[in-house]
Each structure stands twice: as structure tokens, then as C-alpha cells.
Amino acid sequence: MKIAVCDSRIPISAKKKLYDYCDRIILLPPFSALHEPVSAHPDMLIYPCREEKIIYTHPGYLSKCCEALGGSGFEIIPICEEASEKYPNDILLNAAHVGKYIFGRAEHISTSVLKYAERRGLEFIDIKQGYAKCSICSVSDNAIVTSDPSVLNAAEKLKLDALKICESGVTLKGYDRGFIGGASGNDGENVFFCGDINKHPDGERITDFCVSHGKKVVSLSDEALYDIGTMFFI
């Protein structure tokens, strides 16, 4: 069974089309400790460890997370640290798993994620961008799309194929802009975008890049790209 985990406020049109590609969609409710516009963003609320069938979440969000993810087959485990809407206490789980690496701001990431990386033999890549998962659209184990210079620099040092795009083109209510990672999701075969990838300034380049890495690009609606905090597939 393929399950998508999304912000409960995902646009109706996008959710409807997403059902064509998965068996179940789990909608995460908001967490009052986080800033309202991102309070239901999966990349702020959970960290899935697919190989171990566990999902880390905030202790104050545990009951809501367990209720939402019931029947998913994953064990929900609270981290030790407490979240708040003030940076960097909001990025405890905002790390991006790409192949044999995990990208994030090491000094502010939960120790649970760091220990997971150690258990699995994954190298944690310390970057300046605290919103790592938001900033990284994962295309494959060795390919990403990003607008962030620190992510790009780290990826190039690791010999990953990284497509640098402009910072504009993704919206997020309450902020000047959103992130390409937060507007996307990857189920292993497809790279999904919340909105129409062709309305992004670098849409054609992004599509060509994903196709060159063997992925199909799926636009979930006709609107401009919107940051919904990443669509996780478990």
C-alpha cells in the first residue's frame, strides 16, 4: 500500500489528483507550537525512517500524530526536544534524506535523527540552511533540485547532481516565498509538485532534469507552485 502524508490544508484539486497515485492520503492536523502557516507541514512535524518503520515527531504532537498515522504500519516515537515557532526550535525534524546522506543544520536537528543516521551508516551533512527538507526537492539518490546556495555547495562537494534554480516561483501564505522541496514529493517513480511545474520560472529545466534521472513529473493542479511542507510517501 502506498501512503502519502500531507498537510491537511493541501488544495482540494491537488489532493484529488494525488489519489490517482496512492492508496491512502494521511492529512496531518496543525500543531499549535509552530507558526500557523507551517503548523501542518509534514517536514516540520515528522521525520520518517522508512527502513526501520518508525516516524519521529514532537512530544507535544504525539497524540495527534498517532491518531492521523494509525494503521500506517509505522511506530510513532517522540523526540526528546520541545518545539516552538521561534527558529531554531522549529527545525528539529527538518532534515533531508538523499541517498546515503542526510542534510540539515546539525546543531539544531533532534538527536533522534542524528542517532538514526549513525545507526543506518548515513553521513550527516551539516549545512547553513536550517530548513533543509523544505529547500531540497529529492529527485533520486544522487540528484536534487534546490535554490539554496549552501545546499548546492554541499551537494557539489559530494558529487551529487544538483540543479540550481531561482528563488522565486513558489508561494507560501505568510511568507515572501516558499521552497521547492516543500512544494514537492517523490514516491520513487514520480516527482510530484503541488501546482503546475510549468508555471515555475525554471519549470522546463526542472522537468528535463527529473526526466533525465528516470522520473516522471506530475503537476497536481493548474495553479502556481505552493509550499505545503513536502509530500512524504511511506
Features:
globular, alpha/beta, 234 residues, single chain, L-arginine/glycine Amidinotransferase, Chain A, three-stranded mixed sheet
Walk me through this protein's architecture.
- With about 230 residues, this protein is α/β, with parallel strands linked by helices.
- The chain has a single domain (about 5-234), classed as 5-stranded Propeller (L-arginine/glycine Amidinotransferase, Chain A).
- The protein has 7 helices and 17 strands.
- The chain has helices spanning about 10-20, 40-45, 60-70, 110-120, 130-135, 150-155, 205-210; strands at about 5, 25-30, 45-50, 55, 75-80, 95-100, 100-105, 125, 135-140, 145, 160-165, 170, 185, 190-195, 215-220, 225, 230-234.
- It has a 3-stranded mixed beta sheet with strand order 2-1-17, covered by helices on one side. Strands 3-4-5 form a 3-stranded mixed beta sheet, with helices on both faces.
- A hairpin with a 4-residue loop joins β3 and β4 (about 55).
- About 50% of the residues are buried.
- The mean pLDDT is about 100.
What amount of the residues lies in strands? Answer: 25-35%
Note the overall shape.
Answer: globular
Q: Assign the CATH topology.
A: L-arginine/glycine Amidinotransferase, Chain A
Count of separate DSSP helical elements: 7
Distance between the termini: 9 Å
Short note summarizing the structure:
The chain has about 230 residues and is an alpha/beta fold. It has 7 helices and 17 strands. It has a single domain (about 5-234), classed as L-arginine/glycine Amidinotransferase, Chain A.
